[in-house]
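Lab notebook, page 48
Experiment: co-folding of the full assembly
Goal: obtain a model of how the components sit together before planning crosslinking
Operator: M.T.
Materials (sequences as entered):
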Amino acid sequence: DADVTQTPRNRITKTGKRIMLECSQTKGHDRMYWYRQDPGLGLRLIYYSFDVKDINKGEISDGYSVSRQAQAKFSLSLESAIPNQTALYFCATSRNQAFETQYFGPGTRLLVL
Amino acid sequence: EDQVTQSPEALRLQEGESSSLNCSYTVSGLRGLFWYRQDPGKGPEFLFTLYSAGEEKEKERLKATLTKKESFLHITAPKPEDSATYLCAVQFLSNSGYALNFGKGTSLLVTP
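Observation: model returned without errors.
Model output:
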């Protein structure tokens, strides 16, 4: 079984819709991250959380929000989706130190029409 | 500006043809340099962490090395199953604590 899971794996939505991407992990890690990946731009950090009560903005947080429901669950929401949020989204975890070895989920491919 | 640059962007090798991928960085306060492998449609998979200049790590046909300015991922006698995108990431100490910057990756294709 995968240690980091993401749902849904693929999603098509329309401009203006609110959507949520979910991430669950069984690794027991406190630190969780959301990234987006675009061709030619690499991986960019959206939000991160070091424990249930901690939420931090990353490089590109505008238009996104997150919720850390439990140690094992970290959700990413697009409040009002726009076409340039079309991308591949990854959740990741790390064990002890901030931004050390990242363990990635399988990704969610999002298309905003 | 802190930066991580990978080269080449794409590399095509014949099976058995050894080569190296480069990751150069300009961050100050390096804490660790990571190499990941990413297959199409999948999440990056951790390969190596290097912490100090002169350090080397090996795994099967891959060897990662680190200097004060760059890291190399050497691929010896590659096989088609080594085809993937290889990502480099640098962990460093910024004004607001630890941070992580990824390079854009090198897309490797190994042909039979």
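Interpretation: Chain B has a mean pLDDT of 94.
Next step: discuss with group before ordering constructs.
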